[in-house]
Amino acid sequence: MRARTLTDPGPKKCHVRLQNSGATLLELVIEPWGRDYWLRPGEVFVVSTAASPDDNLYPGTTHPDEPFEVDYRPQSMTVHCNGLSADVTDSHGNELTCGHQRPETAAEESTNSWLTSPEP
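Request: output the structure for the sequence above.
Response:
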């Protein structure tokens, strides 16, 4: 691991802004952690991830300059973060926690099998 100096801020961070331009609640799932967040119509969330401090690359991808992969489906979006971590904030920079704005009927509304599959 390289040492940080005053001129070296550490691992680079990348951000992707996601907006719900639809008319209904939109599920956002962050992988590989399986965390869910829910955007109301018109809301913007920002997902951030950090590169490896050793080489400033993103270890979870075959393309080192691609920190995110986004998969969109009706009413649900999955962001695969290829960095070492993932943070989700609102458009004002406030950190959000897993389950943010999750509706009580999330299992019924979700398109993700981990929410809708019956337990063994």
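Helices lie at 106-109, 113-116.
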